[in-house]
Design a protein that fits this description.
Elements: H1 5-10, E1 16-20, E2 35-39, H2 43-53, E3 54-56, E4 62-64, H3 69-77, E5 78-79, H4 92-96, H5 100-114
Antiparallel strand pairs: 1-2, 2-5, 3-4
């Protein structure tokens, strides 16, 4: 079946998955109940991610910069239960300073969703 423009634009294609984050449970709450979500990136977010990986050299060459890769993916994909992003790209540096295990867990789930 060939899809119409209307069908494509109205499709709910930003699938999300739950990710447990016991390390970030608020004090006094059960860590087993601490979780969040990550979702698929939009086209704009995918472009933003790819641009974040590029680092200009002094010449005409473009080098890849992997620093902050996981935090960037988390900032672009972590969302609330309605799919609304939790972080801005301005908060990537702050995410880089968080514990590696939960960031890696969120990154892995996001990478699985986004290919």
């Amino acid at each position: 079946m060939a899809l119409t423009t209307e069908q494509i634009l109205s499709a709910d294609d930003l699938k999300k998955v739950r990710v447990d984050m016991p390390e970030w449970a608020p004090e006094g709450t059960d860590p087993a109940e601490a979780f969040g979500f990550v979702r698929r990136m939009t086209g704009d977010e995918l472009d933003e991610y790819e641009e974040a990986l590029r680092k200009k050299s002094d010449g005409n060459d473009t080098l890849t910069d992997y620093r902050g890769l996981r935090a960037t993916v988390v900032a672009l994909t972590a969302c609330d239960e309605n799919g609304v992003r939790l972080f801005t790209t301005a908060q990537v540096e702050a995410l880089c300073k968080k514990a590696g295990d939960p960031v890696k867990r969120l990154f892995t789930a996001a990478a699985d969703l986004n290919g």
